[in-house]
Structures are given as structure tokens and as C-alpha cells.
Amino acid sequence: FHSRKTIILTKILNNYQRSKFYHSTSDEQNISLYSKTHQKGSIPCNNNDLIVIRLPKRTCDPCSRTKNVDLVVIVKSCVYCFEQRFVFTVGLPTPNETNTYHFDGFMTTLTIDAMQLSSKYDILSNESKIHNDMLIGAFHDTYFNLTSKMMLSLRWATNFCIPQSPLFLFIDDDYLLHPNNTINLIRKFNYSQMKSLAAGSVYFGKVDRPKNGYVSYNEYPWDYYPRYFLGIGYFLGADVVHDASIAMPFTKQFRIDDVYLGIILKRLNRTLTHLDNIHIHPGKHHLKSGAFMITRYLAENHVDWTTGLIIRKKRTEH
């Protein structure tokens, strides 16, 4: 949505003895991941403290009577994305101002945007005070902490939001929501369906191992990932969010958050539903056919935000 209203939007920027996974090839030659059933008394392998610096007060506030809603939207954002978001979960700015990271013997260099300005924290704090809809975690906001950001979001939703909403939508801050199309989509599901839903743009692919090794065999020894959602946007029902937040401490962490969620959902035996109306590069024809996640270009040129109607391209004034 282009404003802070309608369906509640939440600003989110946001082994057990080493878990052992076994793989097998199904009829479709998809990799299935399983873990050994943990023994009584086993210690979680991925249960580091996720300290919260700020909680959103406008949404899912346990200290006030918040109206129940059909959908809570969690927008994944970053500390330097002030102009791109209107809601978010984020970590702290990095202390070393570097865009080069070393992991398991490999070096990754990110674009300049990924390392800009830890001095932005004061602006971040002020934004949180004004809007009261941000969840900020006490970890550095880097590419390799995306999984921690997702875990924080799910834990917060489990503890504060599940009694108030049956359904959650997680989206990147590169996209906006078209209100009418979003409402029309969720109205297709009844309450029970919402609670158990896991839906998005389903992807299944080979592990990326270029010459310099993006993912090492030590991190992930198999050739294919399980089915997972493209991280641009996906729906998780309250039951799925609850179960995933419990399963994660008992599942070895993987730094690619989209894939990690896919591993979790596979372990939980959840069916991933593919939604045809999610597009990485949506056009006006997609918007007309029900696309609910739209680019900033579509939002600024083809939507009348006073009515929510789809319009011809707006004329630019000279």
C-alpha cells in the first residue's frame, strides 16, 4: 500500500547435535531433505539470542487491545533504505563500512548500496519513533544476516501477532502492494485455509557454484535445493509461522534465507503453493490480471492512489 492504513502493515527490516540432513531423489528428481528425529534432551543447534532493540507499537502490541485483522504485512528492508520503504525489520548498521565478506574460505563483494553509512542509525531511530511500526534486531544488517532477520520476524510474529491475524505476507521493500488486488486475493481463502497457507512464487534450482564458489560443499553438500519461495514475496499462515519458528532452532542455519525457509518447510512437510500473480518484473497487464505486488514505476504511473484504480500512464508536467 502507498499509505500507512487499510490492512495492517508492519515495518520489518529487518548440532541439536549438529542437524544432519539426508537426501533422496523423488520421481520428479527433486531433492528431499530430512533430519534425524531428535532425541529427548537434545540441544538446539541454531538458537542464538536474537535481541530486539525496538518493537512496533502500532501493530500486534501486547499492551493494548489491537483489532484482529485478516493480514499482517511484513516488509523486509535495510538500514539505508529510507526512501524505499514505508514499513520494516532491520538490523544495526555495520561498524566497518565494508562491502566485502569472507565466508567458509570464499570472498563475496556486494554492491556499494549494501554497505552504505552506519551513521544512518540516528535517522533510523528517528523514523522508528515517528511511525512506531519497526522491528529492529541487535545484529548487523548485512547480506549474511538475512536469515537472522527472517528468524527475528517469525519469532516476533509468533509471540505477538498470531492471536490477532491468521495470515502473514512477507515482501521485499522493492515492491509496493496494490490494495484492491491484495484484498481480492486473500478473500479467496477462508480462515482455516489462511492459517495453513504457504504460497508464493515457487522455485526449484541447482546450487550455484561458480568458479570462486558461492556456496561451498561444506555449507550445502547436495546439488539441488528443495523447493522454496523467491524472496520477493510469499504468504505464510499463522500455523506455518508458528511451526517454522520452532523448527529453526533445531535446523542448522544457512545464509541464503529463501532456501533456508524452503528447508524448514520441507522438514515440516508443508506443501508450497505456487501463485501465478507474483512477478519479478510486473507490467501493467499483470496489474490488470491481479498482480498484487507492483514496482514503484507501476505505482507512480498506473495507479490512482485516491481510488486504487488502474489508469493509463500519468502525464508528466513540463
UniProtKB/TrEMBL annotation:
Its EC number is 2.4.1.-. Its main location: Golgi. The keyword Membrane applies. GO terms for cellular component: Golgi membrane. It is a single-pass type II membrane protein. The keyword Glycosyltransferase applies. It is found in: Golgi apparatus membrane. It holds the Pfam family Galactosyl_T. Gene3D superfamilies: 3.90.550.50. Signal peptide: none annotated. InterPro entries: Glyco_trans_31, Nucleotide-diphossugar_trans. One of its GO terms (biological process) is protein O-linked glycosylation. Keywords: Glycosyltransferase, Golgi apparatus, Membrane, Signal-anchor, Transferase, Transmembrane, Transmembrane helix. GO terms for molecular function: hexosyltransferase activity. It comes from the Eukaryota. SUPFAM superfamilies: Nucleotide-diphospho-sugar transferases. PANTHER family: BETA-1,3-N-ACETYLGLUCOSAMINYLTRANSFERASE, HEXOSYLTRANSFERASE. Belongs to the glycosyltransferase 31 family. This is Hexosyltransferase.
